[in-house]
Design goal:
Length: 463
């Protein structure tokens, strides 16, 4: 410290950062703890007890926690200053040559206070074990041991908290230190790369997820990693988040994460599935630990939670009017309430959705009726519909069973796909329509093809 005050070797504040509160620890032992123990040892024949002394002074031993938390940083400072300051390195070498150092390094001596509390605990355990059952010090010694144990626990907790904050700060730096994300009370649970499945072009792109105790961050790795390593594209609150594993032949190992603001269809990397230690699989496991199940929006959730979007490539015709899509006059759109793939005419409605801040969004006719309670005029409902199209929709809506099937030829090979309907009023007749409703093997939730909000009991449009 004398060298530091001269300002020639190392700044005084650096020395204080290296040695933390060691002067207070030394003062406590020199002026209180050691004199009290020495006084009791001198009077041992008349009062063979030390438990009461340790009980009285044990709470002050918690000051070791501050020193322990700072130890790793102190060692890093010594190494850094030894490399960049030759005078500092010479000073340390000179101190270590002194007889009092016993040829040990400065770092070795600095480690002694870190080991002091565990040594106290071991020494007191041995003392209690060897005390006679009738010893007057047994009760106090056992209480003192319990207090020392709590002090050791406090030091360990301080180390764990220090490491947590350091790791959390590193994560925040990788995310760009955004103000609405940085919070020292957060806890990082899992992180890892993931594949995002696009509902538009049926492709995948690499993303990165950070799962905290209160939020899920959906991020994109930056091409030029100057400063932040990732760019946060979406923040989803963990509260109310639902997770479900999907069975998809085209995209194996997929799962759905649904929050109030957005629904994501994700795929874990293959090597993460084969090797459990990979981080994307650990995220998938952590997400499933929420023990929640995702289903297609039910009546009570419609408009309140972001839906699962049906992929564009899985359907060949509008999921409401059953008219085939084409690239020019009949393009695909998604209903923001139920997630169905519908044509422009069937989604020519606007409804306020709670999960999107009650802003008007494109919705299909059925969801519009359910969410607003308004009826649709008959001339608008049947506008520009062909005879066969209307018939297909009407028959499917009052069917015993309907589904997309594929006709096989005599050799058992696949042929024409069709939309098959068994109507309720004529169950012995099988209707076959030229265009399929949904491609075979698609991942559309079972039973969702025919389920419309107006079919739900209690809906305003239900008689």
């Amino acid at each position: 410290m004398k060298e530091a005050k001269t300002g020639k070797t190392v700044p005084e504040e650096v020395v204080k950062m290296i040695f933390s509160n060691i002067s207070s620890i030394y003062q406590f032992h020199a002026e209180f703890f050691l004199p009290e123990l020495q006084k009791r040892m001198e009077d041992w024949h008349h009062n063979p007890r030390i438990g009461d002394v340790i009980q009285k002074l044990a709470p002050f031993l918690k000051m070791y926690g501050e020193y322990v938390k700072n130890f790793d940083k102190a060692v890093e400072l010594i190494t850094a200053w030894s490399e960049k300051s030759p005078p500092f390195q010479e000073l340390i070498a000179d101190i270590q040559k002194r007889k009092v150092c016993a040829n040990l390094t400065l770092q070795h001596h600095m480690l002694e206070p870190v080991q002091r509390i565990p040594r106290y605990e071991l020494l007191l355990k041995d003392y209690v074990r060897k005390l006679p059952p009738q010893s007057p010090d047994r009760g106090d010694a056992e209480k003192a041991l319990e207090m020392i144990f709590m002090v050791a626990k406090h030091s360990n907790a301080a180390i764990a908290e220090m490491e947590r904050l350091q790791n959390l700060w590193v994560v925040y730096q990788r995310l760009g230190l955004e103000d609405d994300i940085v919070d020292p009370s957060n806890e990082l649970i899992k992180e890892g790369p993931i594949q995002k499945i696009s509902t538009r072009n049926n492709s995948t792109s690499e993303k990165y997820l950070f799962l905290f105790n209160n939020m899920l961050l959906y991020c994109v790795p930056k091409v030029i990693q100057v400063g932040a390593e990732f760019q946060v594209h979406l923040r989803m609150d963990v509260g109310g988040m639902k997770v479900r594993e999907l069975k998809d032949a085209e995209f194996p190992h997929t799962f759905l994460v649904s929050g109030k603001q957005r629904t994501l269809e994700l795929q874990a990397f293959q090597d993460a599935i084969d090797r459990k230690e990979k981080r994307s699989e650990t995220f998938k496991t952590a997400a499933e630990d929420t023990q929640t199940v995702l289903s297609h929006p039910q009546a009570e959730e419609l408009g309140r939670r972001a839906p699962q979007w049906v992929r564009d490539n899985l359907v060949t015709m509008c999921m409401r009017c059953r008219e085939p899509f084409n690239a020019i006059t009949r393009r695909r759109h998604h209903c923001r309430a139920c997630g169905y793939v519908v044509c422009a005419r069937c989604s020519d409605y606007k409804a306020e959705l709670q999960y999107d801040g009650n802003r008007p969004n494109r919705v299909c006719q059925e969801c519009f009726i359910f969410l607003t309670g308004h009826t649709v005029l008959e001339d608008r409902e049947g506008k520009h519909r062909g005879i066969l199209e209307v018939r297909a929709a009407e028959v499917s809506s009052r069917s015993l069973l309907c589904s997309s099937l594929q006709l096989l030829d005599k050799n058992g090979k696949g042929g024409t796909r069709g939309w098959f309907v068994i109507p309720q009023d004529d169950p012995l007749v099988l209707y076959i329509y030229a265009a399929p409703q949904v491609r075979p093997g698609s991942n559309v939730p079972h039973g969702d093809i025919l389920l419309c909000p107006r079919d739900i009991p209690g809906h305003p449009g239900t008689s």
